[in-house]
Design goal:
The protein is mainly beta. Helix content is 8%, strand content 39%. It has 3 helices and 48 strands.
Length: 512
């Protein structure tokens, strides 16, 4: 078995990091600024414009020129000029209502549960009965009556001449009635933007009415419509599972996607510009001396001010009052109480806020009772349950949320330098009962108490599946070895070409 040493690995990584950073073309910074609610900006932290005001879409939303603070546009929808969370609320003709179920729609200004009630005439709600459907503003029994279309819609006995005869197009009156009910149902009221700069391939589209999935355009069924590869689906859909960008229909309710494999309760099947002169180094549109300066996103800084970049700024990682949050540098001297990073934002413990994060987004919410995080979503436990960062429209009273959230590797430094941690690449994942079994390849071990070689880089780890964050095959994460022989997942996927240098230099400088 091949032996790995921390020093040899770091030298290799630093070489990759250096060669990938030393590009031979000077270029200028490029920024992206879009106005209004685009609906396709997941992962974006740039400032956008709402009317004449700039705002951050990670912490606020823009609806019809008005800003709603405290709710990220990445998870919000508009109800007139106010943003709301469609995961737990619904907008009915300008009224924001708290959902009582994941299967709700609007009936005029009111909300109704589609599995137990009918909406007739756009604003009349009736108890759902077997073989009953809508006829104008009332319901009727399809086995004994029909809905006649004269000047108005009227319920008549089936022997009336106005009743349609059984043809190939209406052999199934129940399906026909359900189709009519869907057409008569009142969708959530949204105010549409006047123009749209977004395109799905070459076709312009309105993100509040449509969604673009890898070049395919779909009509939004609701604000909970999401992409799964080239297909679209709704989070509240039953028996639907998005697994590694492939949408699967009619799957059993307890099915899980783990490592690209769909596990079901019964059985499992595997699926498998300007060029510089010779000798000059570029930093944006200027040249710089790499011996005395550091280049951060096209901006040159003296190394006397620090050796690490935070976005376009440089900082000294020994300064305990400076905190870098995903490229945004914060000075903690003016804050009262403790704070930590939530994506590119700073979360203060005394502000009654909660940070929900996934590998793609980190979003701050106002803390609410009976709400928990599921990845970067903040859900009502009476409506949803969460398993491995996947929402399910089936609330489970005994379903415990994850006890902690994953963080970027840089947010864990230097607290984890005194712990026995290592970088492990997920090679294979299997699900058995409620346990997720993972085969890890140990890439590098960070143990400041010893520098022992890793004799066998293969490690078998078991996690509680639902209460642990999701893991992807081929991705490398930071793990902690606990005293009881178990392992804890700590970080989001690690970028070995950028994060590893800070990990090595900070921890080993601290050791020295």
């Amino acid at each position: 078995m091949e032996s790995y040493t921390p020093t040899a690995f770091v030298v290799t990584i630093l070489y990759i990091f250096a060669t990938s950073s030393a590009q031979g073309i000077c270029h200028h910074d490029r920024g992206s600024h879009k106005a209004g609610f685009s609906g396709q900006m997941e992962g974006s932290n740039h400032l956008h414009h709402c009317g004449n005001v700039s705002y951050n879409i990670s912490e606020s939303s823009c609806c019809n020129g008005y800003i709603t603070p405290g709710l990220s546009q990445l998870v919000a929808d508009c109800c007139g000029s106010v943003a709301y969370n469609p995961l737990n609320e619904i907008c009915c003709k300008g009224n924001i209502l708290t959902q009582s179920s994941t299967h709700v729609k609007c009936c005029g200004k009111d909300m109704y549960v589609t599995t137990t009630h009918l909406c007739c005439g756009g604003n009349n709600i009736f108890q759902r009965k077997e073989d009953h459907s809508c006829c104008g503003k009332e319901t009727y029994d399809m086995t004994t009556h029909c809905c006649c279309t004269n000047l108005t819609l009227e319920v008549k006995p089936k022997n009336e001449t106005c009743c349609p005869k059984a043809t190939g197009s209406n052999l199934n009156p129940i399906l026909t009635a359900k189709k009519k009910e869907f057409q008569l149902g009142s969708p959530p009221t949204r105010t549409l933007p006047k123009t749209s700069e977004l395109k799905c391939r070459t076709m312009p589209f309105n993100p509040q009415e449509n969604i673009c999935c890898l070049g395919n355009l779909y009509k939004k069924a609701s604000a909970l419509t999401k992409c799964c590869g080239v297909d679209a689906y709704t989070l509240s859909d039953d028996n639907v599972l998005c697994c590694n960008g492939i949408l699967h229909l009619n799957v059993p309710e307890q099915s899980e996607c783990v490592g690209g494999v769909i596990y079901t309760p019964a059985n499992t099947t595997c699926q498998m510009s300007i060029r510089p002169r010779l000798g000059e180094h570029c930093c944006g549109g200027q040249t710089f001396n790499p011996r005395t300066h550091i280049c951060c996103n096209g901006h040159s800084h003296s190394k006397m001010n620090g050796n690490f970049c935070c976005g376009s700024e440089v900082y000294d990682h020994h300064n305990q009052f400076l905190r870098c949050c995903s490229g945004h540098l914060y000075n903690l001297t003016h804050l009262s109480g403790k704070a930590e990073c939530c994506g590119n934002l700073l979360l203060q413990y005394n502000n009654n806020q909660t940070c929900c994060s996934s590998s793609t987004n980190s979003i701050i919410y106002q803390t609410k009772p009976n709400h928990h995080c599921c990845g970067h979503y903040y859900y009502n436990t009476s409506l949803w349950s969460c398993c491995a960062e996947r929402l399910k429209p089936t609330p489970k009273p005994n379903c415990l949320p994850a006890e902690y959230r994953l963080k970027p590797l840089t947010d864990l430094i230097p607290e984890m330098c005194n712990k026995t941690v290592f970088l492990g690449k997920v090679e294979s994942v299997a699900l058995e009962n409620d346990q997720r079994h993972i085969v890890l390849k140990v890439v590098w071990q960070v143990n400041v108490k010893s520098e022992k070689d890793i004799k066998d880089p293969w490690l078998h780890v078991s996690l509680d599946h639902c209460n642990s964050p999701a893991t992807d095959n081929g991705k490398t994460y930071l793990w902690e070895e606990k005293h009881n022989g178990k392992y804890k997942l700590l970080s989001h996927p690690v970028d070995l070409t950028s994060d590893i240098y800070m990990l090595y230099s900070v921890c080993y400088q601290k050791k020295g």
